Amino acid sequence: MRTTxxxxxALVIAVTPLFADELQLTGGKVIYGRxxxxxxxxxxxxxxxxxxxxxxxxxxxxxLVLTYSLPDFVYTDPNWSREMVEARTKQTFEPDWGNVEVxxxxxxxxxxxxxxxxxxxxxxxDIYDRFRKIFPFDEPVDASLMPVFLFKTPDQYYAFYAHIAxxxxxxxxxxxxxxxxxxxxxxxxxxxxxxxxxxxxHQLVANRLGIRGGGSWFQEGLAVYFEGTIFxxxxxxxxxxxxxxxxxxxxxPTMFSLRSLLHSSEGDLARQRYQQxxxxxxxxxxxxxxxxxxxxxxxxRQGETWETAFQNLFSASVSEVEEEFIKFYET
Length: 331
Prior knowledge:
α6 packs across α9 (267-286). The protein has twelve helices and ten strands. β7 (108-112), α2 and β8 form a beta-alpha-beta unit. It is globular. It has 331 residues and is α+β, with helices and mostly antiparallel strands. The strands form two sheets. A five-stranded antiparallel sheet has the order 4-3-2-1-5, with no helix packed on it. The chain has a five-stranded mixed sheet with strand order 6-7-8-10-9, sandwiched between helices. It folds into three domains: 21-65; 82-207, Collagenase ColT, N-terminal domain (Glutaredoxin, 3-Layer(aba) Sandwich); 216-330, no CATH class.
């Protein structure tokens, strides 16, 4: 994503939450809830239903799977009943922002106070079809239509984003669109803007591929790579040959450790890391290990560490895989 927040909210229900962070301890116990902080040596984690968090030493943690929560209302109708529409409209749009229209297609429901709802439905379905060709998945049975919030003005979008993500208005203004939880939100502009394809990919990674972990590099890399398959000017491989020849790319272990590509660096370095993340995904999808790309995605879905995944899938260490990545872009 271009500015998607790394947030997660626990879904308090009586059974195992479908959308909550998952903490697996070395003794085999699994805890569902929300990761609140990573101190370096321990993880501050609040379990579903608990009022306070607890710190777990990393030596006692075998796996952490980060995810996103569903909104705090019940999905009773996959096609969005009138009651669901009213509840989500009230949650998302301020009363003085004008009348909100709702448009449905095969896979999406667009809420908008602009006049471009039908055009954006066409774009979202185009994203869906293109994404599924590159990242095949089985069509889910009775899956809910995925919501898209299209605001008439940038200021309305910024206000919504700042409120729901609990960030400053200034931070929200750095964004043109974001995908989080089940939705994609943006403001009225060209329906063919690359932002829609980037953020639409984020929405589908979570809600159709079922992958909500893998790290920032992985999540952003998938979106950057997908965007580049449609817009040649956004191809992440552009300029990578020069970076790897000069060894100015970010080493794989560093990329894996970055909680957020956006907030871990600034300016040119942040842009370079986004580009590299997409180039890494392109390497895995089209390079030496392309025939194991489905397994690569499944490893992220299962929450494996990349060190373990590389050994299992490629019989290679992280450094050995990185050397193959370098060769892919040097030649």
